[in-house]
């Protein structure tokens, strides 16, 4: 089973939906991101409902205490009420991080932890049988946050629809290809006991180390035309403007 990064997310409708949600909730997000509790928990719950997905599901076989923020499977995603197939035959796992005023100083390190969690994770076979895309998704509110995501090697998602949201969507993906299955397995038939397939005892997971871009801890800013930033004058000397 191989893993690799791609320049564009396969599940682009999912990313479009995130931008569309941000576009229609700009005011709430701009207020919530200034609160001490941040807006990540609220965003996770909104996405759970949007994608008809699981939340805080344990899909890590190598750590019973680790859970994924959002899990989409073909059996749940794209229910009739939503009329949107966010996944095809594959499953999708999302680890989400949202930049806020109070976590801005550790936003980069928290995203890096998610990347390491995804890269080292051994996922349950039930998720991998028909393929699985495991994403780290980071929603950056400022130019500094965007700069940090680029320095980690994440990709920027830009919608063809031109939707304006109060954040940028940055992503990293670990991909598991669908397992090859014999016709007898597809038909649910049993194999002759003399023809049993040999098991690979060493195949307990995928050995995949973190793949990051170079980090510039001393960077003095990142201007990519998005123009989100903190400015003086609101909430104790800070204000967020969207252009």
Layout: helices, strands, pairs:
Elements: H1 12-24, H2 26-32, H3 40-51, E1 54-57, E2 68-72, E3 91-98, H4 107-120, H5 125-128, E4 132-140, H6 143-152, E5 155-157, E6 168-176, H7 183-186, E7 229-231, E8 239-241
Helix pairs in contact: 4-6
Key traits:
six-stranded mixed sheet, disordered C terminus
Poorly predicted runs of 5 or more residues: 1-6, 188-243
The coarse silhouette is globular
Lateral arrangement of strands in the main beta sheet: 1-2-3-4-6-5
SSE succession? HHHEEEHHEHEEHEE
What is the subunit organization of this protein? single chain
- Helical amount: 25-40%
Share of residues in strands? 15-25%
Radius of gyration: 20 Å
What's the tally of helices? 7
Class computed from helices, strands and strand pairing: alpha+beta
Gap between N and C termini: 44 Å
Largest sheet geometry: 6 strands, mixed
Mean pLDDT: 75
Compute the number of strand runs: 8
